[in-house]
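Target protein
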Amino acid sequence: MKLDLNLLRVFVAIYETRNITAAAASLNVSQPAASAALARLRDAFSDPLFVRAPLGMEPTPRSQSIIDKVKQVLESIDQDILSQQVFVPQQATDEFVFCMTAIAEYVFLPRLFAVLKKHAPLTRIRSLSLSPPDLIESFQGGKVDLAIGFYPDLVSADIYQQRLFSHNLVCVLRKEHPITGKQMTLDAFQNSGHVDVRDGSRTSEMFEEILVDRKIKRNIVLTTSHYMSIPRIIAESDLIAVVPLIVAKIFASTYNLRLISLPIELPGYDLKQYWHRKYHHDQRLLWLRSLIQSEFSDAYVSDLLRDMGTDSCSDNPIVQVHL
């Protein structure tokens, strides 16, 4: 037997009011609609369910036997299925799974951990590194909540994205490096020994494409797959490296390095957060995305760069990063 759930709501309303007109009013439907619903119920159960009496519609034994179960079913549907689930950060024990580029993890993860521990102290964090195809598959399966970083190839009708902030590239070198001034000349850029980071990020690939397009060659003498090896290499040599501005600022403030502008103009790179459309209305992810958007915005980067203000070009044109 298949029943429209609205028929069961009419059944409960009549049982509680003992009156079809009152039941209709409580459900905000017309009296004829309630009478029609009762007729369908009687047919489905092969029982009159209610009979007229001096004090109203009296339930039959069949109605008496099923009323509690019907109420339980409707209550379960209303509370567990139809009600909007509310995410309570302070009580949540979830594990938030992120996919981040190496740069994004270096910039985001320390502060992200601190922010989440403040607002959702019982939650845990896991950070993964996945290729775009693997990431899309993990998104669909709910294995990754958000991706954060520069993913220009993460394009799909099923993937939503939101810009957080933009960054640019800059040269980093030791403080006593022979190259001086606020902006590196093209000759100095091409003749200097470079440390090249090949970590698989699209930022590095797109920078290389720009150099090839403009017929600019670098003298790469050392190649590494990790940004974290850059600071000591630069501090102990006359090599230079091209890195994102915000990362370079962290390096400079920690390892006493110097920043200098590139001799060419480059577009800004947007760092974004990405998620799957299947979870667009999920309450926990709505909260998480909102938190990240508020904490990691243009203002955050501006404050971070200002707070890290070393003598590494505070008045340098490199701070014309797209914020």
Residues 95-160+276-305 form a domain with the D-Maltodextrin-Binding Protein; domain 2 fold (CATH 3.40.190.10). The chain has twelve helices and twelve strands. The first strand starts at residue 50 and ends at 53.
